[in-house]
Design a protein that fits this description.
Number of strands: 19
Distance between the termini: 24 Å
Strand order of the largest sheet: 1-3-4-6-7-10-11-14-15-16-17-19
Number of helices: 3
Oligomer: single chain
Radius of gyration: 21 Å
Number of domains: 1
Largest sheet: 12 strands, antiparallel, barrel
Strand content: over 45%
CATH topology: Lipocalin
Shape: elongated
Length: 357
Amino acid sequence: MKKILLALSVVSLFAAKAHSQGCVAIRSTGGICSMTDHPDSTMSSEGSWVFNANNRYFKSFRHFRGSEEQKERLEANTEVINHQYALDLSLMRVFNNRWSAMIDIPVLANGRSSLYEHGGKERHKMHSFGLGDIRFAVYRWLLNPEKSRNFNAQLGLGLKLPTGDFDYQDYYYNVGVDGAKELRTVDQSIQLGDGGTGISAELNLFANVAKNTGVYGNFYYLSNPRGHNGVKTFRSSSYEAIMSVPDQYMARAGVNYAVGKLIASAGARLEGIPVYDLIGGSGAFRRPGYIWSVEPGLTYQFGRMNVYAAVPAALYRKRTQSVPDKERTEASPTKTRVNGDAAFADYSVNIGVSFKL
């Protein structure tokens, strides 16, 4: 039974990891899920510290408008290519078998290659590197872990700070006088932060259903009340002149199976940017959309340390219609539907390690 409880906790280490899915700018949600504070888990106990380092990389290049892929972009070599890497360093304090707290510090390194941003004739690259938005969170198990060992639910409430640079700049080529390069704000998808102070809410669930087998669920929502951050996008449309500060969400569920010290998991993952925020304005420029993925994973545990890997692979991708898209549609004399596009990745690679200090 302890193996399953630990399996559930370890697999959930990357539950709250969400990063930009290409042009749909899903920021790092940060931090390990504190399922590791279950009293039957060897990873944590009352008064302990748990450290986690999660690495995530992906390449986005497939463009979607709505749910339809624009395959012609690849054929014409006009696609935008984003290479994005994130290192999340998380530290959790387990106070007792009900309460824990976490801080997550993301470090991001991004590269973006495109034609249209550089005069349309030559492909050039832009980069961003640095600290992302730091998040703090507090967690509590709803049921007494001493009495409920086969099922429990955990709530989390957090605060996301605008510590990441949301006006990072690099050079655009062939845009100045006589084709000169200019220092401008990079695209929203590779900005290090969104410029808003956000409130995060989480729900984490587990249940033991058979010997060495369990199920899990993780649900996360980040509310960003700030409507926009005042940063210019350098886009041609007046509807999209300023960057939005959007909400974001993530949900995942699946099954774990333990064989000795090896834990295998398989599940589904949904993450995205909504069209409308729960609080505050939803205008200005954003690329709302979502991606459904199948998420296989492996975890190996030994002593005070766990090593894990997961590769979410895309099943369905959709770039939804933003508020500016809707406004432009209504402003059109023929009410022609406007729906911007976004580039998505085929898969992402997550590799990490956690250990009790």
